[in-house]
Design brief:
By secondary structure, the chain is α/β, with parallel strands linked by helices. Helix content is 38%, strand content 21%. It has three domains: 36 residues; 174 residues, Endonuclease, Chain A (2-Layer Sandwich); 170 residues, Endonuclease, Chain A (2-Layer Sandwich), CATH 3.30.870.10. The chain is globular.
Length: 408
């Protein structure tokens, strides 16, 4: 390529990127200037019985009003150790309740360890993010060190949400800590007791020890067991290990009857999208539930770019109404389910630190299906004939923004 041609190509790419950035700002501004939505009504919820297998007990939560009291109760009942990890931890009334209780338990002599993502909490007050020495605290770095500028692994976020008490009771799912998530977001979390809680404790300790940077290491002597019916899948960006993506691919390709996916940000890569399409073409009932309007404008527009292709290939798309559905769950064929922190986008599947439970249990899958069908009562199904009639400038905006999918 001639020098002039190369400079022209670079200039063209720069112009396109600048236009994409400008369009993103316009979309964000348009949403902020739009009239506030009417008062929000409670989301539909489904009574969920406790679930058991030979060695585990599970409790599923659809609302923060049910989850957060259970988490606080678990912390209050702790006798030895408390491990808490959260992507976002708001400095509001609920966030302060968690912090105060953790301080009380640490002052009573318990080993309390806390991890949170520094970048996700930049807007949280510095005072709130200061913990007493009795609480071992790890702020996952917001920005890479100078020596890591060209190491893309250093840009990964700690997107995990975990609470493990006494290595025996664990909570995992999509809920961050804050009143916003308690009252206005629909999410899914699970409480589990049994051997898998020790595996989750070990994975908390492993993350701590790889990132503690001079802090005391967290040494655990746990009797870990291989689990055939309940497994932990952990994306580790620092080691370029991303098994959650493989877990989804394997489960989708094995489906025979149905695939029900709920996700906050549906921006699948080529392999995930092809697996969903091929599965739908085999006659499997493939349904994807996403928010009609999420908290990330760009994510919404990138997701919409996929909708027509999905609809044309037999994938049914449902848009959750009147609020943000933030769950990261799936259930397949009445036996396989997953609950965790990973979205179906590039950042979660091949970028951030994530953690999901993979569960083979018919009773658990039945509850997951009930949750999905309950959520569908508050959702609108897209129709291909109507979707392709959207305005030309909307289609153009989707096309212009589509190359940005690796950023999300």
């Amino acid at each position: 390529m001639q020098p002039n041609s190369f400079r022209e190509l670079v200039a063209l790419i720069a112009v396109i990127f600048a236009f994409q950035v400008l369009l993103t700002f316009v979309l964000v501004a348009a949403r902020k200037l739009r009239r506030h939505p009417p008062e929000q009504h409670p989301f539909p919820r489904q009574p969920l019985p406790p679930i058991h297998d030979e060695r585990h007990d599970f409790t599923l939560y659809m609302t923060g009003d049910e989850l957060f009291p259970a988490m606080l109760e678990a912390i209050e009942s702790a006798q030895h150790t408390i491990f808490l990890e959260s992507f976002i931890w708001k400095d509001d009334e609920l966030g302060q309740r968690f912090k105060t209780l953790l301080e009380q338990k640490a002052n009573a002599g318990l080993a309390v360890y806390v991890i949170f993502d520094a970048f996700a909490n930049l807007v949280v007050s510095r005072a709130f993010k200061r913990f007493p020495p009795s609480i071992r605290t790890l702020k996952y770095p917001a920005f890479p060190r100078p020596s890591q500028i060209f190491d893309f692994r250093a840009y990964a976020r700690d997107h995990r949400k975990l609470l493990i008490v006494d290595n025996a009771v664990a909570f995992i799912g999509g809920y961050n800590i804050g009143d916003l998530y308690r009252t206005k977001w629909r999410d899914t979390h699970v409480r589990v007791t049994g051997p898998i809680a020790r595996n989750l404790a070990e994975m908390f300790a492993s993350f701590w020890n790889r990132n503690c940077r001079g802090r005391p290491r967290l040494e655990l002597d746990l009797d870990l067991e291989w689990q055939s019916t309940v497994r932990v899948q952990r994306n580790d960006a620092s080691r370029l290990v991303f098994p959650i993506r493989s877990m989804y691919l394997d489960a989708i390709e094995r489906a025979e009857r149905y695939v029900y996916i709920t996700n906050a940000y549906f921006i699948p890569d080529r392999a995930i999208l092809e697996a969903l399409v091929m599965t739908a073409r085999r006659g499997v009932d493939v349904r994807v539930l996403v928010p009609a309007e999420s908290n990330h404008v760009l994510a919404d527009w990138l997701a919409r770019h996929y909708f027509e292709f999905c609809l044309r290939n037999g994938i049914r798309i449902f848009l959750y109404q009147g609020g943000m559905i933030h769950a990261k769950t799936a259930t397949i064929d009445g036996i396989w389910s997953t609950v965790g922190t990973a979205n179906l986008d590039r950042l979660s599947l091949a970028g951030n630190h994530e953690i999901n439970l993979e569960i083979y249990n018919a009773d658990f899958a039945r509850s997951m299906e009930e949750i999905f069908r309950c959520d569908l009562t508050n959702a609108h199904e897209l129709n291909l004939a109507d979707w392709i009639k959207r305005a030309w400038y909307i289609k153009a905006a989707e096309l212009v923004l589509s190359p940005l999918w690796p950023m999300l």
